[in-house]
Amino acid sequence: MGLGGCILQAEYGRKMNRILVFFFSVTTPFGIAFGMGIQNIYDETSPTALIVVGVLNACSAGLLIYMALVDLLAHDFFGPKLQSNMKLQILAYVAVFIGAAGMSVMAIWA
């Protein structure tokens, strides 16, 4: 989602967009094949593996939080419709905090 949003915002030419979409669509199958290739030598309980997984999870979470706050919410919260209506603005902030609290509660079991 983050990379797709960046590709759209960059407004490259048609050829560059096709190249970026190609690499964007190839990375997941490549990652799956790579994971299948190393599954026999990968020890998921080793300290190194736990650190790598923790760092990659933190990077993924940071990217998703950035995309949510900067690209998605900022566009809505600073739009003229929300800026002109204080009641709607308060409801929007309450909805964001309820959503964040709900995701935090669900993280307990993740």
Structure characterization notes:
- This protein has 110 residues and is mainly α.
- The chain has three domains: 1-42, no CATH class; 43-78; 79-110.
- 83% of the residues lie in helices and 0% in strands.
- It has five helices and no strands.
- It has helices at residues 2-10, 14-38, 47-77, 80-83, 86-107.
- The chain is flat and about 60 Å long.
- The model has no long low-confidence stretch (mean pLDDT 86).
- Keywords: Membrane, Transmembrane, Transmembrane helix.
- Its main location: membrane.
- It holds the Pfam family Zip.
Brief digest:
The protein has 110 residues and is mainly alpha-helical. It contains five helices and no strands.
Biggest beta-sheet profile: none
Uncertain ranges: none
Radius of gyration: 19 Å
Distance between the termini: 21 Å
Order of helices and strands: HHHHH
Structural class: mainly alpha
Question: DSSP helix count?
Answer: 5
Number of strands: 0
